[in-house]
Amino acid sequence: MRASTPMREMTAGAVAPDADEKEIRVLLVDDQAGMRTGLRILLQLEANAKVIGEAGNAVEAESLAQALKPDLVIMDVEMPGCDGIAAASRCIHQHPQCMVIILTIHALPEVRARAIAAGAWAFVEKGKPQELRDAFRRASEILQIDAPHSSNA
């Protein structure tokens, strides 16, 4: 995994974080490597986002969430072996402080309802990068309030 900070400094549109702004540690979960790359690039536009891990399936995601303790997980719904909503539910149960944004191509109301019932904080359709950035920013605001600012390490 590459560090995103140096590239973020060179990326047009990125805003420097405030000195007391908490870094939001993000775990990306999608079975398509190209989609994870796109998500990582999109998050580099956010000054306080730090991608700390990537997983291609739900089993990897749960293991990485346990080891890395992210603030935010962005998780696809459809993945081999287990759907993302079930994995999100387990992640939230094991790490109640972690927020989950469900990312999907399925804008069906029943999929959205399942995600919200599982504890997902937001539900965003793939192909809508501004909605994802907005969801990240709202989650970041909540995490800024709920977490101490003593360290970004």
Q: Could you walk me through the main structural features you see in this protein, from its secondary elements to its overall organization?
A:
With 153 residues, the protein is an alpha/beta fold. The radius of gyration is 14 Å and the shape is globular. It has a five-stranded parallel beta sheet, sandwiched between helices. Helix 3 packs parallel to helix 4. The protein is 43% helix and 18% strand. The chain is built from six helices and five strands.
Helix-strand layout with pairing:
Layout: H1 5-10, E1 24-29, H2 33-43, E2 49-55, H3 58-68, E3 72-76, H4 84-94, E4 99-104, H5 109-117, E5 122-125, H6 129-146
Parallel strand pairs: 1-2, 1-3, 3-4, 4-5
